Recover the amino acids of this structure.
């Protein structure tokens, strides 16, 4: 990652001094021969006036610029330029026989439904890039255009799509970094078979995509608590969410301060064996319309129910979004904004149907 030192500004100190002015004079009588009986001459000195020096000193003022923060995590950034660098989104498959990589390094992970009753991850990298290659990289869907629009021209690392989806991506503000354009940032691995062997070097994908007109995330995606603020909500140990054929579960671990993921009754690990974790879990019930080639199409512009799990609590409310270029607004039932813990966020998008979301008691 490229980082530049934080620039600081300070007001100059100005001091003004005035010197003392002194004046002195003597008037003497004329010297004339006089008889001895003449009165003696008199010499009178003029009075001397001393002006005390006056010093005026300007007050010293120091203004510290605000600490830059990463807009996707709310955590401190080393400098403003790094906080506004472009985003890379990798479309990663969710398969038992091809575990994902990179989810624990991402700022945000969206889990969306696709065809064949399975889910797929849109893995958003910004504040940090993973050391290992990310994959398995899979195809995109029409719903990605709306879902990722608020990231402001993100770089899309994907394996491509059918003609309709590819045209939609090319016509959108997403930067198409399919294998046709990835240059040296994507490659096939020898430990997996086609179509599960396409992987991306995310830092190289960032370098390539930046030259192709990528933008920067110029707005926060969620609202975060200030450091030290108490967590609001009802105590909860996590949530169970049905994502078509996948039964997912998040369990709060108070020792680590993280939520831990399981899928279909087993711990859900990355390829390197690390359990998938996150700081926040956001579950947004979403309407899916029939899409092309049998793919469900998430309607991420509109509104719906939301459950936010953070710090061992849950807050219920409504998500809303008036335009694809705007971030999701999360509002609690009492009308107040829902605040997340600064850090990583996992967003699940289940169908808006009864019985698919089960809040676990504390």
């Amino acid at each position: 990652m490229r980082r530049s030192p934080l620039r600081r500004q300070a007001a100059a100190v100005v001091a003004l001094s005035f010197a003392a002015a002194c004046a002195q004079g003597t008037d003497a009588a004329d010297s004339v021969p006089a008889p001895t009986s003449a009165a003696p001459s008199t010499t009178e000195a003029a009075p001397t006036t001393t002006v005390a020096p006056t010093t005026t000193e300007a007050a010293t003022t120091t203004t510290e610029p605000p600490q830059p923060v990463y807009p996707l995590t709310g955590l401190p950034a080393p400098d403003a330029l790094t906080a506004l660098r472009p985003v890379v989104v990798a479309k990663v498959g969710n398969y038992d026989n091809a575990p994902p990589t990179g989810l624990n390094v991402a700022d945000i992970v969206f889990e969306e439904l696709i065809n064949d009753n399975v889910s797929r991850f849109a893995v958003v990298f910004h504040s940090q890039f993973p050391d290992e290659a990310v994959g398995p990289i899979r195809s995109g869907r029409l719903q990605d255009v709306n879902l990722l629009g608020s990231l402001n021209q993100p770089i899309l690392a994907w394996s491509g799509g059918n003609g309709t989806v590819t045209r939609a991506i090319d016509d959108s503000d997403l930067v198409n970094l399919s294998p046709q354009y990835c240059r040296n940032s994507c490659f096939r691995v020898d430990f997996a078979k086609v179509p599960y062997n396409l992987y991306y070097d995310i830092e190289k994908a960032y370098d390539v995509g930046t030259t192709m007109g990528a933008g920067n995330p110029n707005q926060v995606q969620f609202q975060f608590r200030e450091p030290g603020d108490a967590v609001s909500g009802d105590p909860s140990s996590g949530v169970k969410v049905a994502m078509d054929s996948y039964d997912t579960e998040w369990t709060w671990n108070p020792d680590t301060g993280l939520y831990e993921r399981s899928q279909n009754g087993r711990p859900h690990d990355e390829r390197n064996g690390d359990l998938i974790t996150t700081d926040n879990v956001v579950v947004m019930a979403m309407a899916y319309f029939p899409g092309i080639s049998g793919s469900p199409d998430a309607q991420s512009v509109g509104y719906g129910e939301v459950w936010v799990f953070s710090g061992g609590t849950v807050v219920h409310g409504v998500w809303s979004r008036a335009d694809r270029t705007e971030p999701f607004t999360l509002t609690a039932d009492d009308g107040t904004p829902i605040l997340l813990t600064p850090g990583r966020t996992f967003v699940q998008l289940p169908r808006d149907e009864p019985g698919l979301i089960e809040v676990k008691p504390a």
Q: What stands out?
A: Residues 80-361 form a domain with the YerB-like fold fold (CATH 3.50.90.10). The chain has a mean pLDDT of 87. Helices lie at 80-83, 143-147, 163-171, 202-210. The first strand starts at residue 15 and ends at 18.
